[in-house]
Amino acid sequence: MTAFPSAGPAGTCSRRPDVPRRRRGPALTAAVCAVLAGALAGCAAEDPDAGTNGVGKLPADKIQAKARAAARAAGTVRLSGNLVSQGRTYKLDMRLGPQGARGELATKAATFQLLRVGGALYLKADAGFWAREKSANPAPNDEASAAKLVGKYVKVPSTDPVYKRFSGFTDKGVLLDSLLGLHGKLATGERGTLDGTRTIRIAAGQGAGGTLDVSLEGEPYPLRLRRAGDAGEVRLGDWGQPVEIQAPKESQVIDYGKQITIGD
User: Fold this and answer.
1) pLDDT digits over 61-98, tens only?
2) What is the CATH number of the domain that holds 97?
């Protein structure tokens, strides 16, 4: 009978011959290093302006010029926020187009609606507003006369001080030209997001002359303005969106002719 080698003591396994481990060759090491080096180089070269409209690469004055050009080219815009004008603080929400505007203004004393269709300006306000237009200390007969204007659009004569005071809020070109002019030496500031849109900020006089956040996506529209001297903050949006502007019905209009007068 043929003899077989002993399997060793019970409960033990026979030991397999040692197999030398395969060493990683120089070629594999070099390949791994190349991959890592490529990844690191890609991170280092990542462009913060990738996927943007490119204005973030421009100096501040060029960014401002691009933003103003985009604003002029857009047919419509919505402005909302707070403005200080002639010593008064106004809260506004206005939609402006090339041929007119509509919206609302508010002060501490009153809230009123503005509507401009072509050159015709209409104002709808409460009785208190019209009484104050007549006098700083309105008499009872002034308030009674002004009460007749509640719920009506008063057509404001172009020669009346009321027209001069409020028509600028309804003129897209005039309003944007006055708002988008920062005061002082311009510099680029931080990047951020505004309502989900990537932006870059330009500042005048280290911020003391106002700041403007400009869109880095699509057209370089101005999106937020902080005016110099704490003179208000305005959001600008709905660029190019349709704005419905219609003259009010004749039955809803009071026309005082050449000058607004209240009372006898």
Assistant:
1) 999 999 999 999 999 999 999 999 888 899 999 999 99
2) 2.50.20.20
Write down the pLDDT at residue 162.
Answer: 86
Strand order from edge to edge, sheet including 197-204: 186-194, 197-204, 211-215, 222-226, 232-237, 77-85, 88-97, 100-106, 111-117, 120-124, 153-156, 253-255
Q: What is the DSSP letter of 15?
A: P
The answer as to whether 49 is a domain residue is no
Total domain count for the chain? 1
Look up tokens 């309003």; give the residue: 175
Q: Is residue 45 part of a domain?
A: no
- On whether the CB atoms of residues 175 and 202 are closer than 8 A, the answer is no
Distance from the first to the final alpha carbon of the chain: 142
Q: Using 50, 70 and 90 to split pLDDT, how confident is the model at 30?
A: low
